[in-house]
Input
Amino acid sequence: MFHSSVSQKLATMCADLIKQHRTLKFTQTDFAKAVGVSRSTIQKLESGEIVKSDVLFEALVVLGLQGQFIQLMDDLTREVGGSSVRQRKRENVRLINDDF
Output
C-alpha cells in the first residue's frame, strides 16, 4: 500500500513520541494490554509503520499525549505549507452583532 511522505513522516513522529513516553511507564506487553492490541501491533506502531487510527489514538490517550499529538500535527502542517489547527480556528471566528 502506498503512503504519502507526509503520512509516513507523521507516523515516524508519532512513533518516536509514543516510544519515548511508553518506556517511562510500560513494557511493550503491558502497554499492548492497556491499548487493547497485540505486542506486535505496538512494535509496528513504535517502528513508524502505519497502523489503524483507533490504535494510534488509544495509545495516545493511554499515555496522555493528546496535546503533544495536536502540536505534532500543527508543526507538520506548517512544514508542508498548510494552515495549522489553531490558525484555522481563529479564521473561523465570526463577530456576532448583538446591537438589537
